[in-house]
Amino acid sequence: MKIIDKKQLAPEIVRFIVEAPQIAKKAQPGHFIILRYKENGERIPLTIADYNREKGTITLVCQGIGKSTYEINRMEVGDSFLDLLGPLGKAYPIKKLGTVVCVAGGLGVAPLYPKAKALYEAGNRIISLIGAQRKELLIMTEEMAAISAEIHFSTDDGSFGHHGFITEPLRQVLAREKVDEVVAVGPVPMMASAVKVAREFNVPVVVSLNALMVDGTGMCGGCRVTVGGETKFCCVDGPTFDGAAVDFQELLMRQRYYQEQEKEAFHRCKLEEAGQE
Amino acid sequence: MRQQMPKQDPAVRRTNFDEVALGFTAEQALAEAKRCLNCKKPLCVQGCPVEIDIPQFITLLVAGKPDQALAKIKEKNSLPAICGRVCPQENQCEKQCVLGRKGEPVAIGALERYCADWGRANQAVEPSCEPECAVKGKVAVVGSGPAGLTAAADLALMGYRATLFESLHAPGGVLRYGIPEFRLPKAIVDYEVGNLKKLGVEIKTNVLVGKTITIEELFATGYEAVFIGTGAGLPYFLDIPGENLNGVYSANEFLTRVNLMKAYLFPEYDTPVRIGKRVAVVGAGNVAMDAARTALRLGAETVSIVYRRSRAEMPARREEIENAEEEGVVFRLLTNPVRLEGDERGNLTTMICQKMALGEPDASGRRRPVPIPGSEEELPVDTVIVAVGQGPNPILLQATTGLALNKRGYIEVDPETMMTSIPGVFAGGDIVTGAATVIAAMGAGKKAARAIDRYLAAKKEAGK
Ligand SMILES: Cc1cc2nc3c(=O)[nH]c(=O)nc-3n(C[C@H](O)[C@H](O)[C@H](O)COP(=O)(O)OP(=O)(O)OC[C@H]3O[C@@H](n4cnc5c(N)ncnc54)[C@H](O)[C@@H]3O)c2cc1C
Ligand SMILES: Cc1cc2nc3c(=O)[nH]c(=O)nc-3n(C[C@H](O)[C@H](O)[C@H](O)COP(=O)(O)OP(=O)(O)OC[C@H]3O[C@@H](n4cnc5c(N)ncnc54)[C@H](O)[C@@H]3O)c2cc1C
Ligand code: SF4
Ligand code: SF4
Ligand code: FES
Ligand SMILES: [Mg+2]
């Protein structure tokens, strides 16, 4: 659980390499962990972005968007997470499909990377489409380029690559050639539009859902999502699902349930930090 | 006359999370203990699933020897401070007490609690084990609820090195995440877990067996037997429209946020919980009462129990139903939710209910509730907590090949040996019986520990 390496990938996006031999041994693409970094902390799910079984380490990429992730990003090499549980969730089954388009939005590259890498190693041709708000928030581009036959970028502000959403390059690729699967990971609205585009072309699309979680072991049901008209527990039945069947509207609303409390907590955390300086 | 345990005043206690029932004073304990007739054939003992020698411990209490009384209890029950508080005594030991036939039974649970609390307050010597204790073998115990805690303690006392594996970050199972602080202070759970450590039991939290490590791998790393006590932690929902609206919690989620994650101390603790003005809890078991009373303490203005049968069928402990009523929980009986509705932001606003009447008895012998046509009514709500039961969590069961399950999905065991279909793998508690009681789970843990001892002894004998 000790942090042995820390690297700032972009503003407020940090990559940690953590000692966790038992988890590293079992980790598969699609798996995540749940951690607590301090005694009165909450349980935070993060995807296993990479793993090294020999060294017994896992890689986590954390984007500071609220109190807990912000504080996690302030941990240093040598610090330890208090609790680390995993690997959780269902592994994403890796098959040789042919051509796979990997679409990532923002931090979504981190959870997407292990899947893309495994697909590549299984002999698939990978086309990567990576979008972010602006150039400096594009992360893990070299890792993705190394496994991709083709890679395209987009930024919302046009500071790099295509100016606009990543779904536009996706549409171009799907219009151009036969694709066997689309894998889309990122913010819910981005996944929802990627699914829409993939469906227009009748291409199967899988997504990785980030429902609110507590235990991550199927015990609370807080992470429930509607997939194909049925209620599923994201932590045990997912987090990877058939995108065409997901009720994204419901997921988006459920993610926002604690927004006011979250804002208050983050605000206090910033105040405390300012007070200390 | 049966002594009444002092309690916090209802108006005060509904605003705090401190323990409600305060325990007997020494005078009360003595007076109550003296009521016991010290029966030659004590029926009460038959009502206790672990057969505590009730007249004996009460006699010792009357003789002014609470330490020995506690030791007597501990011969059969390693967690008396917990059982004295949460056992459904009116259906168990006290139901059988002869005094109950004409008047009121001896308050056995309260006396048991008194002894245990006395022991904690006076630092009674707890059984302990030196690290160099004879080590008869290594046993893995999966799940740290009452079944696992008891199995591990008994195995340690018999000379085994027991390791508890728990998926959450804190041990205790339902005692930790389910039963609230005001009914079972977590300091008591911590104390009992501390005793377990003194016995040499190793506790490994954050290990989800089936994911982090499999049962096969436990054997491969040197454990000679495995006990599965993973409980019935999978929450059931109602399967009605609108159940995924914001504001609909399973009781497990609601109670876990509050108890395990301490959301009632937000923002000092980071986990949030939202409670509206109007809360409805569906169900009438212990879980439902706990959820309802927790909701009150979090500041809800009205909290109703919505239950489709009548008062007579409510499965909760009588004391908790009374406590809930005193605190102001409203009981909407013969009422069944059929639909939930929300606003444009996906937040719950209304529960549509149907009135029920009791018809013919069903398979369980209880009269089946049948809907009254045209009786739909709207209940404005901003939080609904679903407490209609739990099932077996599939993670470990699916990851373990060759583990036979029964029709309901629970683990099948030989009732004598508690062994599953896999040699050397034993199971007990809610994962075998379905949601039951703390004491039943403890009884199963005890029985399994003895069976494991016999199994390993026989195996060693055969190997010689
Ligand atoms: C399976 C899964 C994998 C994830 N992988 C990553 C990852 O690799 N890297 C990364 O940076 N983030 C990941 N996330 C998201 C991450 O868990 C949230 O950003 C984090 O919990 C926010 O906590 P906070 O206190 O910093 O922010 P808050 O201000 O408390 O919340 C901000 C937003 O984050 C979401 N969130 C809050 N609490 C939780 C929770 N307990 N569980 C899930 N989401 C929550 C909500 O949508 C909320 O509105 C993943 C989430 C899931 C479910
Ligand atoms: C809110 C509530 C109130 C209750 N009130 C009462 C009461 O007043 N009186 C009473 O007698 N009974 C009560 N009960 C019932 C009683 O608590 C249970 O019957 C009892 O706890 C069952 O014990 P157990 O050891 O079988 O399982 P549990 O207590 O459920 O413990 C199982 C443990 O195993 C862990 N686990 C699960 N899967 C894995 C895995 N794969 N790997 C590692 N760990 C795992 C879980 O995290 C959990 O900690 C109540 C239950 C609830 C939920
Ligand atoms: S353990 Fe429970 S049933 Fe047995 S004597 Fe104590 S309170 Fe009664
Ligand atoms: S049955 Fe009642 S009176 Fe008789 S020994 Fe038991 S507790 Fe005492
Ligand atoms: S997070 Fe609790 S069931 Fe999925
Ligand atoms: Mg947070």
Automatic annotation (TrEMBL), chain A:
Matches recorded under InterPro entries: Cyt_c3_hydrogenase_gsu (IPR012165), Dihydroorotate_DH_Fe-S-bd (IPR019480), FAD-bd_FR_type (IPR017927), FNR_nucleotide-bd (IPR039261), PyrK_electron_transfer (IPR050353), Riboflavin_synthase-like_b-brl (IPR017938)
Entry binding sites for [2Fe-2S] cluster: 220, 223, 235
PANTHER family: DIHYDROOROTATE DEHYDROGENASE B (NAD(+)), ELECTRON TRANSFER SUBUNIT, DIHYDROOROTATE DEHYDROGENASE B (NAD(+)), ELECTRON TRANSFER SUBUNIT-RELATED
Name of the featured protein: Sulfide/dihydroorotate dehydrogenase-like FAD/NAD-binding protein
Residues bound to FAD: 61-63
Any GO BP: pyrimidine nucleotide biosynthetic process
Cofactor: FAD; [2Fe-2S] cluster
Molecular function per GO: 2 iron, 2 sulfur cluster binding; flavin adenine dinucleotide binding; metal ion binding; oxidoreductase activity
Source organism superkingdom: Bacteria
Domain (FAD-binding FR-type) ranges: 1-94
Entry keyword set: 2Fe-2S, FAD, Flavoprotein, Iron, Iron-sulfur, Metal-binding
Cofactor note: Binds 1 FAD per subunit. Binds 1 [2Fe-2S] cluster per subunit.
UniProtKB/TrEMBL annotation, chain B:
Domain Dihydroprymidine dehydrogenase residue range list: 13-123
Keywords of this entry: Oxidoreductase
Gene3D superfamilies for the chain: Alpha-helical ferredoxin, FAD/NAD(P)-binding domain
Listed EC numbers: 1.4.1.13
Enzyme's top EC category: oxidoreductase
GO molecular function: glutamate synthase (NADPH) activity; iron-sulfur cluster binding
FAD/NAD(P)-binding domain ranges (all copies): 138-445
Pfam family, one: Pyr_redox_2
Stated name of the protein: NADPH-dependent glutamate synthase
Organism: Capillibacterium thermochitinicola
Primary gene name: gltA
